[in-house]
Amino acid sequence: MITLLDNRALIKLTGEDSLDFLQSQFSNDVKKIRDNEIQINAYCQHQGKITALIWVFKKDEIYYLSFPESLNNIVLAKLNMFKLMSLVEIEDLSKNVYQYGLINEDSDKSFRINDNLSLLTSIEPLQDSYNNYQWETACVNENLPEIYIETYEKHIPQALNLDINEFGVSFTKGCYPGQEVVARMHYLGKPKRRLFRFASNVEVLIGDSLDVENSESIKSSGQVIRVAKEGNEFHFLGVFELKHIDDQIFLNNDRNKPVKIIHE
To answer: Is the entire prediction scored with pTM above 0.90?
Structure first.
C-alpha cells in the first residue's frame, strides 16, 4: 500500500560540513546511516526534551530530513541558528517534493524505516495512493513514535523508547544538544515513563492527557502522542508512567473515558 504523506516537511542539506553538522545536532550516529535506509533521530533542546523526531536519509551523499510539517519553522530556525559558520546549505523542499509512506511494499527507490515501512520521495505525484490515515494505523501498530506541535519539547528520548537497542539514540557518538541529560538518565537512572500502545472507544486526540486515580505526579501520568482510528475504535501511542500500568487509565481525567493498554 502506498500512502500520501501530505503532512510532512522535507529539508535538504548540502555542503562539505553537512555530515559533521548533523552529527553535532542529532541523537543518533548519523555517520552510520546506510544507503536506502532511514535513521530515526531526536532533535533535543538543552534539557533533553525532544523538539522533533527526524527521519534522516541520504542519496548521493546529500542528506535529507523528514518530519511533521507543523514543526517546519521551528526545526528550520534551530538548524540555521546552530549552523553558524559551517559550510552547510539548508533548503526547504516541502512544497516541491511529494513524500509517500509504503506499507509492505517493495521499491528500490524507497528508504526503509523497518521491515514493513519505508519512505518514497518523488517530484511528481503518484497516480495511485491512499490517504495517510492508513499510514498512521501502520505506524501505531509498529510502535513507531512521532512528535507533533502539540507534544514538542515534552518528552525525553527514553520516554519514546528511542534508547532501546539504540533505535534512535547513540550513547557513543559524542555531543549534541541535550546529550548530557539523555546520557545521565541512561547511565545513572531509570526512566519513569515509557511508550505504550493503547485502545479507546472514545475519540482520542494528540496531546490528550492520560490520568489515573490517586496519582502522586504533579502532571498527568501520560500523554497521547500518535493516533489512528480503526473502525469504531481508536488505537494510539502514549507516553505513560511505568508504576501505573496496572491501574485504570482515563482520558483527560474523565472517568467516563477509560482506555486500556494493549499488552503484546
So the answer is: yes
